[in-house]
Specification:
elongated; alpha+beta; 2 domains; 320 residues; 26% helix
């Protein structure tokens, strides 16, 4: 997971920028296509990257080198410049290769906004559950490009079938000063993450359906593949249940069957269960026609603070 993140957020963008800086297609058309293609790919990566690094704004930082490289090419090729069209087999091949990039980046970048449209089915409105500070959406949205949770809807994969209840879930990372996700430098320092120990108050009056608070917090990037939700609270408000997972060990204050009032503390952010770094997992589940049970299959999509949140969106706390 960490290797994939580093590849998509550092290695691939730098490789694209080096390609733009060092490989000249030999024609004005080729250079324009290459510049546009690199820009499209960088924009797509910024929109769909899970941003599991310490700073959320890193994917957008590559705009500076792109502008510098393009500006340098324009200065060096003036006056006269390269021929407008490619010449020869090598020039045509370079231009054809550069043509792939705008299509690849445009297709992925174009699909990202569609992840912010409500998915088909029931929508459940959930009040903003966060207090002070701001949060960043990691996994979240209505297609698999912006949310890995949506892959659990694939009926062809057997291991996903018991996990359909989290298909519309949202994962939130805390954001501190300067947009940093944590104050420490080492990913294993889970206590340095902004969302670790962050209080989570109830935003609706309801009943605790299920609660667990004794699971240990994991050291990043280790995770529990058996107990996936870890310490958690399922709170039933009205006709739906809201699941808060990966809470800190010993912080859960809700009991199954207990009544919860607006503003009551539920738990604190943690790193228990199948979590490779501290984050807040939230999803909604339909209530059974009678009794306290919930129906996990084909869950409704949570609309938080009136928004269909997707990967890369930010949500400010209520006290900001």
């Amino acid at each position: 997971m960490i290797a994939m993140v580093l590849s998509l957020q550092i290695a691939l963008p730098l490789a694209l920028l080096l390609w733009l800086a060092l490989v000249l297609p030999g024609s004005a058309l080729g250079l324009a296509l290459l510049a546009a293609g690199v820009a499209a790919c960088l924009l797509a990566l910024a929109r769909i990257a899970r941003r599991a690094l310490r700073v959320w704004w890193l994917p957008w930082l590559y705009a500076g080198p792109w502008l510098l490289i393009v500006g340098t090419h324009l200065i060096r090729t003036h006056p006269g410049g390269p021929p407008p069209l490619p010449a020869g087999t090598r020039g045509s091949a370079g231009t054809g290769l550069a043509l792939v990039l705008p299509g690849l980046g445009g297709w992925h970048g174009g699909r990202a906004p569609s992840g912010r449209t409500p998915p088909p089915g029931q929508i459940v409105d959930i009040a903003n559950p966060f207090g002070a500070g701001a949060c960043l959406v990691g996994h979240g949205g209505s297609n698999t490009l912006v949310s890995g949770h949506m892959r659990t809807l694939d009926p062809a994969i057997e291991r996903f079938r018991p996990r359909r209840d989290q298909s519309c879930a949202k994962d939130f990372f805390g954001l501190g000063q300067w947009g940093l996700r944590a104050t420490g430098g080492r990913p294993s320092d889970t206590a340095d993450d902004t969302i670790f120990r962050a209080p989570l108050p109830a935003r609706c009056a309801g009943t605790g359906i299920r609660a667990e608070g004794n699971r240990p917090d994991r050291e990043a990037p280790d995770s529990d593949r058996v107990d996936r939700v870890g310490n958690h609270v399922i709170l039933r408000c009205g006709g739906a249940g809201t699941v808060f997972a990966h809470m800190r060990q010993g912080s859960v204050t809700v009991a199954a069957g207990g009544r919860v009032a607006v503003g009551d503390p539920l738990a604190e952010g943690g790193n228990s269960g199948a979590s490779i770094e501290p984050h807040q997992h939230i999803d909604a589940q339909r209530a059974a026609p009678e009794g306290p049970a919930l129906l996990p299959a084909d869950p409704p999509a949570p609309r938080i603070d009136g928004r269909v949140l997707a990967c890369g969106d930010r949500l400010s706390g209520l006290t900001d």
